[in-house]
Specification:
The complex is a heterodimer of chains A (about 325) and B (about 240).
Chain A lengths: L1 H4 L2 H24 L14 E9 L4 E9 L2 E8 L4 E7 L10 E2 L4 E10 L1 H31 L4 H15 L3 H15 L4 H26 L3 H9 L4 H31 L11 H12 L2 H30 L4
Antiparallel strand pairs in A: 1-6, 2-3, 2-5, 3-4
Chain B lengths: L1 E12 L2 E13 L4 E5 L6 H8 L7 E6 L2 E2 L7 H7 E4 L11 H11 L5 H15 L14 H13 L5 E5 L7 H16 L3 E5 L3 H7 L2 E6 L2 E6 L1 H6 L4 H10 L1
Parallel strand pairs in B: 3-8, 3-9, 6-7, 7-8
Antiparallel strand pairs in B: 1-2, 1-4, 4-5, 9-10
Classes of the chains: A alpha+beta (about 325), B alpha/beta (about 240).
The structure holds adenosine-5'-diphosphate and magnesium ion.
């Protein structure tokens, strides 16, 4: 009781500090000459794309059927072929029976399209999603190799982990694209996803190794004493328990991967970060776009950590 | 059933070599209950673990039910399925329920179907006296209950031999009895058992033979009456004086 009673002053203090910081930033921004254009930001998520509808042949307008906002125009070619075109009623440019030549505009249709922020986000998501799956596979195998009894496997996996953890990701991306990508003729997407996967894989390997080693030897021995072979004991006994312990650091790694994926923008992959940069070159809405991009990364990563939190609770039933 | 000849196990590590088991010869006949006693560090666990291949011995031979463990062609997994082992720390699978702990190896090693495995598990749970706990996770059970589940898990494989490595040493005193009772019942049913224990009462009551080990060697061997009343060896006398 006492503890809850004493909590509110601290909550208040937190709120005051946050408001103070916001006010401070606001004041500082107002002193420089910057025109905020938040109203332009939504267009970079979704925009209405107005596209002309043309007649694909020489012919004439057979019929025009108006149906509220949408009008359907039936076009008849000289060879007797009919084509229907849907346009917005207000943009109708032809009359019934009119003769038209190929390419003449009948009217306009508009549809919602994804703006660069959304396509960039999508690129970021599939890039880091694909890299995560690959990293998990690489990391599992490498982690198992790290604790294998075979010297060669141990040596190879240790070298891989050391090399990746000892060099910057940015340099690895350059090597993957400009060196390996050139030699093996890889596209930038393959090189980018590959570099991310290999980078994260090394960290996943260490997480997996530590997770497996944290399961007591007695578990393996009990499984083996019942006649299970090494693989069965691993699959049914050790790995499921290790997985539970691995889950929090592993999800942290994947959240890092989403953020690290912003580095692939240096090899001209149009991910969320690159999209942001491109929008800014044409609009100069620098502040708004970077704040928006940051918020979008934040939303993705917090959704992911909530998901993991939920999974952890589900897995905790046997504790 | 078990014939061990000159079994030697040497641990090397950090420049030290330990002869954990040093030329042990022992035989266990079918249906016999052999209790192994001796001071801590005398190699009792290591010897027991050699019998089901959890440790590989460096010299000597162990033959179980006609199968030579030292033979490279021997499938150790087959041997282990015939030799149940109960550990001091229970080693139940914490991510599986009691029922799953007992059915898992039946299904994947003995290839029993689910119904058969569960029927067997339930029958054994009744036998060890915790039928009502089948859906619990091990962490919800007391130490004594966990150890009884571990015994049931080993028995579910229909082993020909049961090995026990200090099964009551990790238990609170009030739970020792319930585990020993299950073991006594097993002995009465004619199970071949090798039991490492400090429970001298159990040894007296149940053992057909007592083996005393010290510093990796089998020092003395005999019936409980003989061993507990008139041991020949000085080290055995000294040990008994300390524990009784
Ligand atoms: N895995 C191991 N590595 C190195 N030494 C070990 C290992 N297991 C046991 N030993 C050593 O072997 C000897 C016998 O141990 P153990 O069989 O556990 O004895 P007991 O069960 O009679 O207490 C001890 O000196 C112990 O330190
Ligand atoms: Mg021991």
């Amino acid at each position: 009781m006492l503890a809850t009673q004493r909590l509110w002053p601290w909550k208040l203090l937190l709120a005051v500090i946050l408001i103070g910081m916001a006010a401070g930033i606001w004041g500082a921004v107002n002193r420089i000459d910057y025109t905020w254009r938040w109203n332009r930001v939504p267009d970079y998520f979704f925009y209405i794309d107005e596209e002309s509808r043309q007649i694909p042949f020489d012919g004439r307008v057979k019929s025009i059927i108006e149906n509220g906002d949408v009008t359907t125009v039936a076009l008849l070619s000289e060879t007797g072929e009919t084509v229907q075109v849907a346009i917005e009623t207000e943009t109708l440019r032809v009359t019934e029976g009119e003769e038209l030549f190929e390419g003449d505009i009948v009217g306009f249709a508009s549809e919602w399209s994804l703006g660069p922020l959304m396509t960039g986000l999508w690129t970021t998501l599939w890039l880091s999603g694909g890299a995560s799956v690959l990293a998990l596979i690489i990391g599992m195998l490498t982690g198992l190799a790290r604790i294998s009894r075979n010297y060669t496997l141990r040596g190879l996996s240790a070298l891989y982990v050391e090399f990746i953890r000892g060099t910057p990701l940015l340099v690895q991306i350059f090597i993957a694209y400009f060196f390996i990508g050139t030699v093996f003729d890889l596209s930038r997407n393959v090189a980018g996803m590959g570099a991310l996967a290999i980078f994260a894989g090394a960290y996943v390997a260490e997480i997996v190794r530590a997770g497996i080693q944290s399961i007591s030897k007695g578990q393996m021995e009990a499984a083996r004493s019942l006649g299970m072979n090494l693989i069965q004991a691993m699959v049914y006994i050790v790995l499921p328990q290790a997985f539970k312990r691995i889950l929090p650091p592993l999800s942290g790694q994947f959240i890092s991967l989403i953020k690290d994926s912003s580095l692939v923008s240096v090899i001209a992959i149009t991910d969320l970060t690159k999209s942001g940069r491109e929008i800014i070159t044409s609009t100069f809405a620098t502040f708004e776009i970077w704040l928006t991009v940051a918020a979008m990364y934040l939303i993705v990563t917090s959704v992911l950590s909530q998901l993991v939190f939920y999974m952890e609770r589900r897995l905790a039933v046997s504790d | 059933m078990i014939k061990a000849t000159n079994v030697t196990k040497i641990f090397t590590g950090r420049g030290q070599t330990v002869r954990a088991v040093d030329g042990v010869c022992a035989e266990v006949a079918q249906g016999e209950v052999v209790v192994v006693i001796g001071p801590s560090g005398s190699g009792k666990s290591t010897f027991l673990r050699c019998i089901n291949g959890l440790e590989q011995f460096n010299a000597g031979s162990i033959v179980i039910d006609g199968v030579d463990l030292a033979n490279k062609k021997t499938d150790i997994n087959k041997v282990r399925a015939e030799v149940g082992m109960v550990f001091q720390q229970f080693n139940l699978f914490p991510h599986k329920t009691v029922l799953e702990n007992i059915t898992l190896a039946q299904k994947i090693v003995r290839k029993r179907d689910r119904a058969a495995a569960e029927a067997k598990a339930r029958q054994l749970l009744v036998k060890v006296g915790i039928a009502e706990k089948e859906m619990e996770y091990p962490s919800r059970l007391s130490g004594g209950q966990q150890q009884r589940v571990a015994i049931a898990r080993a028995l579910a494989m229909d082993p020909k031999i049961m090995l026990f490595d200090e099964p009551t040493s990790a238990l609170d005193p009030e739970m020792v009895g319930e585990v020993l009772d299950v073991m006594k019942q097993l002995a009465r049913e004619g199970m071949t058992m090798v039991v490492v224990t400090h429970e001298m009462g159990f040894a007296r009551e149940v053992a057909d033979r007592v083996i005393f080990m010290d510093e990796g060697k089998l020092v003395e061997e005999g019936t409980p009456e003989h061993f507990f009343t008139e041991p020949r060896e000085e080290r055995a006398k000294l040990f008994l004086k300390q524990v009784l």
